[in-house]
Amino acid sequence: ETEEGLLSKIKMASSILFINEKGDILIFRKFRDDVSRKETMNFCNKIVATKEVNETPMIELDGVTFMHTTVNDVTVVATTKTNCNCTMIMEFLYQLIILCKMFFDADFNENQIRKNFVLIYELLDEVMDYGLPQILEPDVLKLYITTGKVNKAVKSIEKLKQITIQATGAIPWRSEGIKYRKNEIFIDIIENLNVLVSNKGAVLKSDVVGQVVMKTKLTGMPECKFGINDKLFMRAASGDPKNTVSRGIDIDDIKFHQCVRLGRFDRDRSITFVPPDGVFQLMTYRITENITLPFKIMPIVQEYGKSRIEYSVKIKSIYDSSNFASNIIVKIPVPKNTATCKIFSTGIGKAKYEPDQSALLWRIKKLNGDSDYVLIGEVTLTQTKSDKQWDRPPIGLEFQVPMFTASGLRVRYLKVHEKNNYKPTKWIRYITKGGEYEVRI
To answer: What are 411's strand-pairing partners?
Structure first.
């Protein structure tokens, strides 16, 4: 069978479009001939111009599937008439937007797109071929796309050869010949804690969404092996699950950077990789079991008719006394018809009524572990004609706690092997932040 015949059977994108909020096409790059510009105008007129574009990320019109995402005032669209991998195409669109922001050195909007027509078409020529995603690694693309604000022109033949090897080799995310006087690797474990607590203090739902961010300054082509206290890995490594499982954590979902060898991970749960140079996200994960909360919020809200509400909100830090939390904001909701708000005491920090947020914001710069404070306040209400009762939205909590993980995840080791046999300096930092942390009142 001919190459053209084989390509016709591969399910792929037909074209990529950038459309403004009026439905006008700013960028139209066709990779195949099966979807015409006239057919794409149906999407522009029926969906984008009528403001229905945010309802669903995939729409089929007259046999053409439109996969799209909107950022600011621009909708980026991929079209196809085949049963292609929609998840792959959507991920491609997200990565394309990130690349554009990087090369623009500015936000992604219509104004920047009009300024960078040539750059965008050059990017599209490199990142997609005949509707199939190709190179999306920024460190490779910026070496030979000389338009935009992130590059300098490639001037030597040797440099061009190196780019070709990097773009087509097995490790496109790292180039040869990297050297550092001091070899270092920085690891940040950043967790966002999402919790819903009842007004009686029972945890109704909780989960942790975390990420492992690395910054590498390593010479050569190092092989790294990264270990965490994952139950399945510890079981496979020790052969004695009775002694190790109790100390490990259960990871529900996990996603890796492309540098991680997935075959090795599937086989023995080991995380091995050749890292990119600089900052990158090694992995993201989600955990739903055995989560430790850093705070306990105990609210008492009493309504006196339709004219007055009294608040007593206690915050207790339940992490170690040697640790501390910073930038804490307790968002205590108040009715929209609040007239005045009086704060009698806080014990720590400052509290202020914010009318635009319909909330009382209690800000605490620093809170040591194993301590508690109480805010006491009163709200007076204006009379309203409506008989509708106040729906009592939950209290929200924002915070940062260093050297603490709500999931219990810990780095067990990071081994680095390189032919020069150097020993890099390793730095590890843990941070837990408040995500959707809510307490019902």
So the answer is: 228
DSSP H or E run through 248: none
Confidence (pLDDT) at 11: 65
pLDDT in tens, 231-262: 877 776 666 555 545 568 889 899 999 899 98
Place of tokens 């919020």: 297
Please give the torsion angle defined by the CA atoms of residues 162, 168, 169 and 174, in that order, rounded to the nearest 10 degrees: 60
Starting at the edge strand found earlier in the chain, the sheet holding 74-80 runs: 25-30, 15-20, 74-80, 64-71, 58-61
Residue 233 dihedral angles phi and psi, to the nearest 5°: -70, -40
Q: How far apart are CA 316 and CA 369, in angstroms?
A: 8
Global confidence as pTM: 0.70
Instruction: Give 113's contacts (C-beta < 8 A, 6+ positions apart).
Output: 18, 26, 27, 74, 100, 120
Q: What strands lie across the sheet with 338-345, from one edge to the other?
A: 295-304, 308-317, 372-381, 338-345
In angstroms, the CA 106 to CA 366 distance is 34
Q: How far is Cα 182 from Cα 184, in angstroms, rounded to an integer?
A: 6
